[in-house]
Amino acid sequence: MALRSTGNVDPDKPGLEFINMPWGFRLRPADMKEDKGETLTEWALMFLGGVLLLSAFGQWILPGSLYGGDMIAMKLMLTAVLGVAGGLIISISARGFRPEVQVDRMRREIRFVSRNPRGRGEILATVEIDRIIGVGMTKSVDGPDCHCLIYLINGEKPLRLASGTEKEIKAIRTIMDDYVTPAQERLAAKIANGKAAGELMATAV
Predict the structure, then answer these.
(1) Measured between alpha carbons, how far is 148 from 130 in angstroms, rounded to an integer?
(2) Taking the model in full, what pTM does it have?
(3) What confidence tens digit (pLDDT) does each residue in 131-146 have?
(4) Of 14, 19, 16, which Cα lies nearest the Cα of 2?
(5) What is the pLDDT of residues 70-128, one digit of tens each?
């Protein structure tokens, strides 16, 4: 769900592309250039999915088709399997394989997106910024990459927001620290709300 490791061996070479937006910013790998292989893969998957869908429904209109009780049950099962497989493959091909993270300060959410070679994006998952209680940074054990981690409420497993050079990840962490409400402020607000609710109840009595 997060950006892949950059595989950078040169710490001075950019690993991420940072794009400022009116609502926040976007992150994607710096080496995400036009790749003819991705386009061919997309078209091949679409072709395969189309063949499966045609096969799923074409068996009902073939000359000499049999419609006995057992044969109909078998055809229904085969239609369901081929139809689901074809639809899934077409969906994957349209989604693409280029990862992107969008941090939206206005909507207070982080979107994990996958784009195809034509630039069309599909949201794979979202995380509300208000669920984040902290932002961390760690170094890769098998390379020079660094990772930006976000920690969620209720002790859920931290999510990797992005991977890049140490300089890039430090900059992203600094920005995210401004977006996230610190745990101390959350606790203070919770205590203040509790006191206000208690005073309101006492006044009502």
Answers:
(1) 17
(2) 0.64
(3) 888 898 998 777 778 8
(4) 16
(5) 677 777 888 888 888 888 887 777 666 678 899 999 999 999 988 776 667 788 889 99
Say if CB 89 and CB 15 are below 8 A apart.
no
Helices 69-95 and 36-58: crossing angle in degrees, nearest 10, is 160
Q: Cα-Cα-Cα-Cα dihedral of 165, 101, 125, 114, to 10°?
A: -100
Tens of pLDDT, residue by residue over 166-194, are: 889 999 999 998 888 766 665 665 666 65
Residue 136: name the closest of 108, 157, 114, 121 by CA.
157
94: its two tokens: 């349209």
Count of beta carbons in the 10 Å neighbourhood of residue 145 = 24
pLDDT of residue 10: 57
Q: Please state, rounded to an integer, the average pLDDT across all residues of the chain.
A: 77
